[in-house]
Design goal:
3% strand, 419 residues, NADH-quinone oxidoreductase subunit H, oxidoreductase, mainly alpha, translocase, 15 helices, transmembrane helix, single chain, two-stranded antiparallel sheet, globular, membrane
Length: 419
């Protein structure tokens, strides 16, 4: 057990260094620039050099910061990220120094709940870091992160429900065993898509990196951190990337099982021994590349678009998907409807929904464009930057003398005040 604990810690730290290096190299290739290529062969030691540089930087604490909370926040953020990987099965049972053991630290009957609990605790570190810094911009970033994690944790938890229904267990190793004859990514495609979107939002990665939007928040919740405290936040983010990628592999891509053509070789000989570790790492690295690909491709969303996606799209659609999966399993168990009849009925329902969504014209009355636009509080919106307001009418000068007396005698009012 002690050997597995050390191995998991070393694995996560090394994966963090390699992921940072790969992110710089891959995005550099996408942007037609070399990326790090000086420290070590192909720049492989650049991440290690950056870590050593952070360790020797001056540790600064703001005057208004809460001392103990400011110190504990990075620890609270990094610790759950390390703990959540303990329930991930990396491979089957193997022999280590004569002892037969599974390549998993602990196989809990509620392993999925442990991952969700660790993700929930991790956000406290971010919130406390923003509050304890004594600065408004870190506080704004931490509040954004709290709303973001709550929103996308709900969608992530709902994506687990269909997997739990098909596997019949909350244990991660049991879910891997349930995918022996087929991956859940093909059997439950909508749950897979929802989880992939939710895991990007959960880890605060682009295009969902709103809590640390540099153009708006000067770095977000860790603006006032430096040295090893900042390194802990950085470590927690990349360890969370590795953990959610490994969890996606476990839930939807068969875990440590070999892909289909290779799984048929020699009656599954490639699913025994140490070979499964290779398949597990390959699938996890594919998800990590997906993270990097998104960062180099998509622009950052607005915060209202981000919240609308979570609450108005992912959560309602996930609830409908759970109902559909429940109906499908009930129909299959009762055998009241054949598979062909069920597929035809499902195609008809989808066609009707598409027609109702895209072909029926919108009959809502058009808004009057002459109305003065109002903000949410009821006050008129000020003119936009590119709109020049009309100039007020210029006052007419009043002539003095006899002519002015004649004009007033004809019925004009006398001017009040100076013109």
């Amino acid at each position: 057990m002690l050997l597995k604990v050390v191995a998991i810690f070393v694995f996560l730290v090394v994966m963090t260094l390699l992921t940072i290096w790969a992110e710089r190299r891959v995005i550099g290739r996408m942007q037609h620039r070399p990326g790090p290529n000086r420290a070590g062969p192909f720049g492989l030691l650049q991440s290690l050099a950056d870590g050593l540089k952070l360790a020797f930087k001056e540790d600064i604490r703001p005057v208004l910061a809460d001392k103990w909370v400011y110190f504990l926040a990075p620890v609270i953020s990094a610790t759950p990220a390390l703990v959540s990987f303990s329930v991930i099965p990396i491979g089957p049972e193997v022999t280590i120094f004569g002892e037969r053991t599974a390549l998993q630290l602990v196989d809990l009957p509620v392993g999925l709940l442990v991952v969700l609990a660790c993700a929930s605790v991790g956000v406290y570190g971010i919130v406390l870091a923003g509050w304890a810094s004594g600065s408004p911009y870190p506080l704004l970033g931490s509040l954004r992160s709290a709303a973001q994690v709550i929103s996308y944790e709900i969608a992530m938890g709902l994506s687990f429900v269909a997997v739990i229904m098909y596997s019949g267990t909350l244990s991660t190793s049991g879910i891997v065993d349930a995918q022996t004859n087929g991956w859940f990514a093909f059997l439950l495609p909508f749950s897979f898509v929802v989880y992939v979107i939710a895991m990007v939002g959960e880890t605060n990665r682009a295009p969902f990196d709103l809590p640390e939007a540099e153009s708006e928040l000067v770095g977000g919740f860790h603006t006032e951190y430096s040295s090893l405290k900042f390194a802990l936040f950085f470590l927690a983010e990349y360890i969370n990337m590795v953990t959610v990628s490994a969890l996606a592999t476990t839930l939807f891509l068969g875990g440590w099982h070999a892909p289909w053509p290779l799984s048929m070789i020699g009656d599954g000989v490639l699913n025994t021994g140490w070979w499964p570790v290779l398949w597990f790492l390959g699938k996890t690295l594919a998800f990590l590349f997906f993270f990097i690909w998104l960062r180099g491709t998509l622009p950052r969303l607005r915060y209202d678009q981000f919240m609308n996606l979570g609450w108005k799209v992912l959560v309602p659609c996930s609830l409908l998907w759970i109902i559909a999966v429940t109906v499908i399993r009930a129909v299959r168990n009762d055998e009241a409807v054949t598979t062909q009849q069920f597929l035809i009925g499902g195609a008809v329902v989808i066609a009707v929904l598409l027609v109702a969504t895209f072909l029926i014209p919108d009959r809502r009355p058009e808004k009057d464009t002459d109305e003065v636009p109002l903000s949410g509080s009821g006050y008129p919106i000020p003119p936009l930057d590119l709109q020049v307001p009309e100039a007020p009418p210029r006052p007419t000068p009043v002539r003095s003398g006899a002519a002015g007396e004649v004009e007033r005698a004809e019925g004009e009012e006398a001017p009040h005040g100076n013109v």
